[in-house]
Design brief:
It contains six helices and twelve strands. It has about 250 residues and is α/β, with parallel strands linked by helices. Helix 3 crosses helix 4. It is globular, with a radius of gyration of 17 Å.
């Protein structure tokens, strides 16, 4: 892939949600200034995030139950409704340039395709569903369709943030506390499909697949921590509040 733009990927391990969001904003600032595009791969502490089209009505558990589960809840600036992130789930934040005449649908399809490719490397047959964002599989025990990966993105000044969440060894009971993505459906993980895999390994395969789908050359490197001056004064992450901690405190 000589001459291709570089997608620098970084495995960050376990990251608290707001720290990950702040890092995305900082990296987006760097990319707009001409730095290489980057894919941040990580796991989050338990957290429910509600996108721009979302509502707390789709959160089924009350504050006390969520507090006992040590889960946070944040409103965020990505598209989509409500989703869950937690240990054993691969979260990917591609920070890439789409340019001024960007096609968000094609970008989301590229992410779906990359996730499908990565799952195929584990001999898991996955697919996209017409009219639904994300990646789906059939459950072996029932044959019912189930969502294994969710996608929600934001594009600001031609650069993407947020991204995808692929269930590897995720505690799927966490999804029972919400209506995932705003409509009732089964949820799957690689573990539920009988596949034993480490989240970091799944991340490496997904990074290679996404770089290929985006026409980038994949490279691995560490990423510098976020600096406060790299985060816009009006960035939503600056005013983000954990809705559960705020409610319990009252």
């Amino acid at each position: 892939m000589s001459g291709a733009s570089v997608l620098r990927s970084s495995w960050l391990g376990r990251v608290e949600y707001l720290d990950g969001w702040r890092l995305q904003e900082a990296v987006a600032t760097r990319v707009r200034a001409g730095a290489d595009e980057r894919l941040l791969l990580l796991e989050h502490d338990p957290v429910y995030t509600i996108g721009r089209r979302g509502t707390t009505d789709h959160l089924l558990a009350g504050p006390s139950e969520l507090h006992r589960a040590d889960a946070s809840v944040y409103r965020v600036d990505r598209g989509g409704d409500i989703t869950f992130h937690g240990p054993g789930q691969l979260v990917g934040y591609p920070v890439v340039r789409l340019g001024d005449a960007f096609d968000v649908v094609s970008y989301v399809r590229a992410i779906e395709g990359a996730l499908i490719d990565a799952l195929a490397s584990y001999r898991v047959a996955a697919r996209a569903e017409r009219g639904k964002t994300g990646v789906w599989v059939y459950l072996p025990e029932t044959g019912a369709p189930a969502k294994i990966a969710a996608i929600g993105v934001r594009v600001s000044r031609g650069v993407t943030t947020h991204g995808f969440a692929l269930n590897v060894r995720t505690d799927l009971t966490a999804f029972e506390r919400m209506i995932p993505c705003g409509f009732a459906h089964e949820v799957a993980s690689l573990e539920r499909l009988g596949v034993s895999a480490q989240t970091q390994d799944v991340g490496a395969r997904t990074a290679a697949a996404l770089a290929d789908r985006l026409g980038r050359a994949l490279s691995w490197s560490s990423v510098e921590p976020a600096r406060d001056d790299e985060i816009a004064a009006d960035s939503p992450v600056r005013s983000a509040v954990d809705l559960i901690r705020e409610t319990v405190a009252v």
